[in-house]
Target: indole-3-glycerol-phosphate synthase
Amino acid sequence: MLTELLAGAVADAEARRAVRPSVEVEAAALARAPAIDALAALAPADRVKIIAEVKRASPSRGQLAEIPDPAALAVSYEFGGASAISVLTEGRRFKGSLDDLEQVRAAVSIPVLRKDFIGDPYQVFEARAAGADLVLLIVAALDQGTLQSLHDLVRELGMTALVETHSADEVHRALDIGASLVGVNARNLSTFELDQDLFGTLADRIPSGVVRVAESAVKTAADVAHYRAAGADVVLVGEALVTSDPIRTLTEFLAV
Ligand SMILES: O=P(O)(O)OC[C@@H](O)[C@@H](O)c1c[nH]c2ccccc12
Model:
């Protein structure tokens, strides 16, 4: 499934490249105002921080919410106390777009993450051109050389990579490329199985100085407390926010 998602996302990027060549996207990326320092925004603190996700649908959960106005949702997230916004830009299964990201970027002043299946430098330039401050890189989807070169490019463009892992070996690979923001996804993107305890078993392998993000499977404040107790500096939440009153839910989650 992960291979298929990556192949689809890269093919869609190829199609966009045919319309908007690399030189143009690279120029647009360099013309943007500098990226916001996401590491500072997500730095460990005496309270847990939240990356709030704009997510319409997913292959494992189907349709979640219409989200006719992603910018309005993102403004609620910022008002509710989120430290950053994640925008799913994958179109086929998650029903997102770069246009969603651009609208969100224009509406909030906190860092914005491009959440997609990134395998080609063109997608990194597109992210920056759309105003992203952060880019997701999924270790399981990439060979080590590609992971390293995409990570280097993200840095060169002044952005931060959220490097997503799902095993001890992947955490090792993330640290090897110099990741400073490491996520542990409770959901296996090949089988879609959830393991809420995975973060706790891997957290110790992530040294202090690297920001630890627990991703997926946060439904209640108790889940946030569970991840926090296991060492999470940040939790990334999608479904629970798009299917509820986001300000109330964020307020509850930030009170743990
Ligand atoms: O909706 P949830 O269970 O709160 O999960 C959010 C986020 O972790 C999830 O959307 C996600 C984590 N890693 C990904 C990689 C690609 C697409 C989506 C994701």
Residues 31 and 166 are 35 Å apart (CA to CA). The two ends are 35 Å apart (CA to CA). Strands lie at 49-54, 57-58, 62-63, 84-88, 112-115, 134-138, 160-165, 181-185, 211-215, 234-237. The chain has a mean pLDDT of 98.
